[in-house]
Amino acid sequence: MTQSFLAISILAYPKYMLRIEKNIISLNILEKKFRCDLTECHGNCCRYGDSGAPLTSEEVKILEEIRPVVITYLREAGKSALAEKGSSIIDFEGDNVTPLVGDAECAYAIIEDNIFICGIERAWSEGKISFRKPLSCHLFPVRIKKYSDFIAVNYEEWSVCIAARERGRIDGVYVYQFLKEPLIRALGDNVYKQICIAAEEFRKST
What we know:
By secondary structure, this protein is α+β, with helices and mostly antiparallel strands. The protein has two domains: 5-34 and 143-157 and 168-205, no CATH class; 42-138, no CATH class. It has helices at 28-31, 38-41, 57-70, 76-85, 119-125, 135-139, 162-171, 175-178, 180-187, 189-205; strands at 5-9, 16-20, 23-26, 89-90, 96-97, 109-112, 115-118, 142-146, 151-155. Strand 8 and strand 9 (151-155) form a beta hairpin. The protein is globular, with a radius of gyration of 18 Å. The two termini are 18 Å apart.
């Protein structure tokens, strides 16, 4: 176990947390099971919510730059939303987010085989752009929030993900395993390796 690994208690949260370097990580990410099952949920994480997907300031610029390419993949409703609102908007909490079609799905969502998927990611998968999709979408259902002296990494349990939790249980896949690629993208390879070590230790102790 490296010196930077330390389990700590956060009074504002009902469970113990994990500290790795400057990251405060919910143990739910280590102990909960999760694996997307699009045939069951139909990509409803792109469809429901109080706001669009959170964006960093850098991602706001990227979305504007790739807009001419991405827009060719979108449905007419998505194109209209971008024309009216822009590539990104500021929501009711003052955060940068993706625009919505009305008050419903993300403007960047497209439908294939009755499943909502990301139009940005579709353009990326076809080699048209180098940006895969916003980090918050890639990480879902994990959310990351940066504070002055630490980074909070939390797992959010949405009702639209019931099928994913059941698929994770059946397949024996934990949240941190399913989200390996985006967690490395967000926190780095070294932190992810320490998360894996911590998960193994955590399972031994329970």
